[in-house]
Amino acid sequence: MRDILTMLLESEGFVVVAASDGREGIAWIERDIFDLIITDIKMPEVDGFGVLARAKELAPDTLVIMMTAFGTMESALEAMKLGAYDYIHKPFKIDEVRLIVDNALDKRRLKTEVSLLRESVKTTYVVENIVGKSEKMQQLLGLLPKVAANNSNVLITGESGTGKELVANALHNLSPRAPNNFVAINCASFPEGLLESEIFGHMKGSFTGAVQNKQGLFEIANGGTLFLDEIAEMPVNLQAKLLRAIETGTFRRVGGTSDIKVDVRIVAATNKDLTEECTKGNFREDLFFRLNVIPLHIPPLRERKEDIPLLVEHFMKKYSDRPRQFSGSAMSILTDYAWKGNVRELENMIERILLFTDNDAITASELPSELAATPQRTSMMPAMDQGTVDLEEILKDIEKKYLLEALTMTAGKKTEAAKLLGLSFRSFRHKLSKYGIK
Ligand SMILES: Nc1ncnc2c1ncn2[C@@H]1O[C@H](COP(=O)(O)OP(=O)(O)OP(=O)(O)O)[C@@H](O)[C@H]1O
Ligand SMILES: [Mg+2]
Questions:
Q1: Which candidate among 41, 166, 205, 342 keeps its CA 20 to 30 Å from the CA of 335?
Q2: Are the C-beta atoms of 108 and 94 separated by less than 8 Å?
Q3: Torsions phi, psi of 130, nearest 5?
């Protein structure tokens, strides 16, 4: 029957993979992404329900058609409740199969079109490559066009890696200043003297090494936006010069004698608390007020976990040349992780995972152990409202997390780790090799 179906579907122009039982079928599902799966219900070892559950977990858009023999009608209906698309009676007529498959794939095409459409409607989730659907990010994204249209200085605050530079760039691109330059400088990466000449330029001979006249970033940014990153690191002395430049719209090059007039919008950023820096005397309060006309705060990723799946998708598209996805349990590990380095850390992690695994569907066990080693017991249960869950897979993940945690806690001493888990050394070792933990 499998051969007949294969021949029939291939003659219709489909690319067909045939699996001789549920286990083999699941191996295919884990390795590739299919438009349609036709599976028998009764099979040795893993039955059609197992195949259905795995397919729904790894690729919820894949349509699953169950084949039922006389007397298993009830199971077919049960399967439909669990997300199967349709069922075929055995013995079947070729025309009947052809019709069901064609309809199913038509429906799938439509669904894809609708979701593409929906994506173009919900563009508010992405503004200038900034992804975010959490309430906090939605608020921020909504503000951007208004803030961009305005000429006031902006102070962006947020932890490292939250996207401060990305937001600064967006403010420029959305503003009437977009045709002119967006110039960024990191105040932490220059010693005091050099920072001044970078920002304001210098005249030949004004200091050793100034062998020619050089324009500063203020001039280069004329008509555009100057982004002063890590502004808290700017030496107090230079802060005074910056304040003067902002207040008068003019400045002097280092060693220069004439005032140069510019029209520059300043966007500054910091991961420090500037009011605190003011109290400590590290930052001029008057400059702080000049910069902080419009404060924009980007919350850390751990305060907007809803954004994580969206960001993961975004970076998968960025770093992968083919469609790939994370299993439900893998995604919940990514969502639960603390991400101290915020979006930058998440981005680097996704890039690394995509590089080190070849599978199109990435499961929890393929994630680097540092992600799994921070156990999040409260949220180990993926929600079932997104579709069916694979209990076997979830339990395996939990087991693996405990194994890793016990090893971490005992600094790799297996006998002690086994004791912690109430396992015999033999069975502990067996489990380690089962999960390939070295
Ligand atoms: N909301 C987001 N959507 C898409 N990409 C993002 C988002 N936030 C940050 N990124 C990406 O994360 C990386 C880090 O962002 P960015 O450099 O803007 O952070 P930062 O706050 O300036 O960090 P630092 O304080 O360390 O300089 C960049 O590659 C950026 O494109
Ligand atoms: Mg930055």
A1: 166
A2: no
A3: -95, 120
Residue 81, CA distances (Å) to 39, 52, 148 in order: 16, 11, 50
Angle value at C-alpha 341, between 339 and 343, nearest 5 degrees: 75
Rounded-to-integer distance, Cα 180 and Cα 62, Å: 47
Distance 128 CA to ligand 2 centre (A): 16
Q: Summarize pLDDT for 240-277 with one digit per residue, the tens.
A: 999 999 999 999 999 998 899 999 999 999 999 999 99
Ligand 1 neighbourhood includes 163 CB (under 6 angstroms)? yes
The H or E element spanning position 308 is helix 307-319
- Identify the residue whose tokens are 């305060």: 303
> Which ligand is closest to the CA of 184, given by its number?
2
Structure token digits, residue 203: 């005249």
294 Cβ partners below 8 Å, 6+ apart? 147, 150, 152, 153, 154, 155
- Determine the pLDDT at residue 385: 63
Angle between helices 391-409 and 425-434 (to 10 degrees): 120
Residue with tokens 């530079």: 165
pLDDT in tens, 275-320: 999 999 999 999 999 999 999 999 999 999 999 999 999 999 999 9
CA 200 to CA 217: how far, in whole Å? 6
**Which positions ≥6 away from 323 have C-beta within 8 Å?**
33, 360
pLDDT number for residue 34: 86
pTM to 2 decimals? Answer: 0.62
Residue keyed to tokens 């945690």: 405
CA angle 120, 121, 127 (to 5 degrees): 75
Cβ–ligand 1 distance for 254 under 6 Å, the answer: no
Residue nearest to atom 28 of ligand 1 (CA): 344
Q: How far is the CA of 353 from the centre of ligand 1 (A)?
A: 19
Residue 67: strand pairing partners: 40, 88
Q: In angstroms, rounded to a whole number, what is the distance separating the alpha carbons of residues 61 and 80?
A: 14
Report whether pLDDT(72) > 50.
Answer: yes
> Residue 284's closest CA among 222, 334, 236, 226?
236
